[in-house]
Amino acid sequence: MTVTTQAAIRIDGVSRTFVSKRGETVQALDHISFDVDEGEFVSIVGPSGCGKSTLLKIIAGLIPASAGHVLIGGQPVAGPRSDIGFVFQQPVLLPWRTVKANVMLPVEVLKLDRRDGERRAADLLETVGLSNFANHYPMELSGGMQQRVGIARALVHDPVLLLMDEPFGALDAMTREHMTLELLNIWSAYRKTVLFVTHSIAEAVFLADRVVTMTARPGRVAEVVTIDLPRPRDLALMNTPEFGRYVSHIRALLNARGGLD
Ligand SMILES: Nc1ncnc2c1ncn2[C@@H]1O[C@H](COP(=O)(O)OP(=O)(O)OP(=O)(O)O)[C@@H](O)[C@H]1O
Fold it and tell me: Domain of 160: which CATH number?
């Protein structure tokens, strides 16, 4: 008997070109291929403009690939999908809605069962430490708290996949470190498949099972680095020689191919 295992996500030969307003053709992605297993945490690092955001948008079905395809659970992505959670660099919360009402937004838009949604929203707000802020408005929260609301909102409809595009890029260094730990807690609690784009090599290594390292534009996969570090992880891990070796290896890959930024 042949047992075939199916990747949760298969990115297969994905290329994407854009035509700029001046009529120039820009190749953003060139034959990107990798698989992501169910429940796996995969980070993506690469130089600015190498197509990381473009890749996430293609996976979410927000824009089409010029060539190649993406399969989620074996099904080709053919348009915007409701079974994906997306966290952006800015939390983009609706200022006139409370924290709880912001988290409930996908439940309303997708017309899901309200009672289930409310239960899940309450659980998620508890996990991200914001139960006491459910009835507050976004402007009453710090940047880190707002981003935690964004994460809770991205998970409320129980998506099969969480896409995160530089979610901590706008936060100060200390809040960013704290949020990295929070994200590990959330991931341990919900075990979603995560694709996480970052400019920070240390953040990528700390969080991930594997780090997809991309080249400068046109973005190609330089190497998919498996991070064989034990879990659960805490910040002390960053001071270990093993951690440093992964960071150095990925930095060398990026430097050899055009630098990180
Ligand atoms: N809608 C568009 N029209 C034309 N060019 C685009 C469009 N979207 C992206 N590009 C170009 O494609 C390339 C990849 O952009 P993308 O935003 O995906 O890169 P990135 O790796 O996410 O960058 P950063 O790390 O700076 O956020 C860039 O050169 C960008 O200018």
Answer: 3.40.50.300
Q: Looking at this predicted complex, what is its ipTM?
A: 0.97
User: Would you say the CB of residue 208 lies under 6 angstroms from ligand 1?
Assistant: no
3 state DSSP class of 16: strand
| Residues 56, 62: Cα–Cα separation, whole Å | 9
Nearest CA to ligand 1 atom 30: 49
**Cα 29 to middle of ligand 1, angstroms:** 9
pLDDT mean values, one per 10 residues, the chain (261 residues) = 68 96 93 96 95 96 96 93 91 95 96 96 92 97 93 94 93 88 90 95 97 94 97 95 98 78 52
Residue 252's domain spans which residues? 39-64+78-256
The verdict on the CB of residue 157 being under 6 Å from ligand 1 is: no
User: What does the DSSP 8-state code read for residue 150?
Assistant: H
Cβ atoms of 28 and 219 closer than 8 Å: yes
Measured by CA distance, the residue closest to atom 31 of ligand 1 is 49
